[in-house]
C-alpha cells in the first residue's frame, strides 16, 4: 500500500452537475490550468458523451494539461467509452472512468437490470476500456448502499478485467464516517485481488459529512484516492471539499501518515476562480477558504494570536494562499506590469488580442477604482468581452436614475448577436428597472431564482460588486456572474451572462440518470 494519497478533482464534472454551475469551454480550461498549478493528480474534465460541448472542453483540456492525468466519465457502454477515449487521446496521461450502479434500488428501479446483467456489463465495459488505455477507473454507483457480497463480486471481476482504480461512491450522502470506513475495509477484505487496484472514495455531502466520510474511508478503509471538488461544489449539498481533505491530511500528518502532492498555496486562487466562474459564493465561515477562516474577531483570540499564533491557529493562512489584500496595480501601471501580473496569477490568455482587451478593461477599471487587487484582475478576465468567446448578449451602455421617493428608471443598450437594442423600464429599484428593461426586449420568460451581490475584495466600499443571477427556464437552471464597481452595471452584466447560458441550448445527458 502506497503512503501517497491521490487527489482526484471532479470540479469540472461532478461539480459542474450542480444546477447553475455549468461552465463554458474557456472557463473549464482556465480552471483546469489552475488545478494543474494546484498539482492535483487527476482532473476529471467532464463526461464526454453527455454533450458536444463537454466533449470539446475535455479535448481542449487534454491538449494543454501536461502534469495531471486527465480523465473523462463514461457510462458502462462502448459508445460512451469510445467517446471518452476520443476526447482524451491528446493528453500526456489519461484515464477512462466508467461506472454502473450496483445497489439493488438502482439496478431494479433505474437500470431495470438484474445483478448478473450489471456484473456482465461492468466486466465488458472495463475490458473494452482497457483495450484503449492502461488507466481505467471503475465506479460502483450508489456503492455504499449496495449489498457487500455482490459489490465484492463486481469489484473482483472488474479488477480481473484490468481496472486499476476502484471507486466506491456514497452517491446520495447517506454514510456515517465510521460505517463508511468499515464498509470500505470489509469490502477490500472480501475481494481476493484487492491489492491489484487503488481504492477510491467519493462522498456526497447531503448530511454534511462528505469530508469526514472520505477521511474515514482513507483511515479505516485504506483508500488511497479521494474524489473531491474545489469549495465542495456539487449537486444538492455538494461533494467532498478538496481544500478541507488536503489540509486535514497535511495538518494531521501525525494521524494520517500520508503524503499529498498538492501545492497548498494555490488553494485560495483555485477557490476564488471556481467561485467567480460559477457564481457559487463561498460562505464566510467555510473551513480553509471562507473569508473568516483565519479572522480572529474576539479580543481573547486576537491577543493570543498576537502573542503566539499557534495559540489559536492550526494552519497558516499564507500556506493556503491567503495574502493580505495588497494593492497590486494602479492607474499608472503599464501593459508589461499587467501582463506580468496575469502570468503570476497563472492566467494564460490565448492571444495578444485578448491581452489587449483585458488591458483596456483594466485601464477602464483603474480610472474608476484607485486600487486594483488580484481578485479584480481575476474577475476582469472572466468578462466575456476579454475572452475569445463571443457571447450573444453584450452590455453596451446603461444609465439609471433613482431618487428617494421617486420610482427608479433605467435605460439599457445591449447587443443581441449583431443587433443593437435600446430599452427603458421602471422598477422597484435601479437593478429591478435595468433587468426589466433587458427582459422587455429579450422576453426570455425566465424566473429569477437567486440574486446576490458580494464585494470582490472585502474591507472597502470601493470594492467591485460581484453579482450572481440564477435563472430557471424550461427545466434548466443557469448562473450568470457580473462584476463592476457599479452594482447596477454588474447586475445587468450578470443577467445577460445568465441569458447567454440559456441561449446556448446544449442538451446534456445526466451522469446519474
Ligand atoms: O456520485 C456518484 O456516484 C458519481 C459516480 C458517477 C462516480 O458521481
Ligand atoms: Zn458523485
From TrEMBL:
One of its GO terms (molecular function) is manganese ion binding. Pathway: Amino-acid biosynthesis; L-leucine biosynthesis; L-leucine from 3-methyl-2-oxobutanoate: step 1/4. One of its GO terms (biological process) is L-leucine biosynthetic process. One of its GO terms (cellular component) is cytosol. SUPFAM superfamilies: 2-isopropylmalate synthase LeuA, allosteric (dimerisation) domain, Aldolase. Keywords: Amino-acid biosynthesis, Branched-chain amino acid biosynthesis, Cytoplasm, Leucine biosynthesis, Manganese, Metal-binding, Transferase. Residues 394-513 are annotated as: Regulatory domain. It holds the Pfam family HCS_D2. PROSITE patterns: AIPM_HOMOCIT_SYNTH_1, AIPM_HOMOCIT_SYNTH_2, PYR_CT. Residues 5-268 form the Pyruvate carboxyltransferase domain. It catalyses: 3-methyl-2-oxobutanoate + acetyl-CoA + H2O = (2S)-2-isopropylmalate + CoA + H(+). Its EC number is 2.3.3.13. Mn(2+) binds at residues 14, 202, 204, 239. Its cofactor is Mn(2+). Catalyzes the condensation of the acetyl group of acetyl-CoA with 3-methyl-2-oxobutanoate (2-ketoisovalerate) to form 3-carboxy-3-hydroxy-4-methylpentanoate (2-isopropylmalate). Homodimer. Belongs to the alpha-IPM synthase/homocitrate synthase family. LeuA type 1 subfamily. This is 2-isopropylmalate synthase. It comes from Aquabacterium olei.
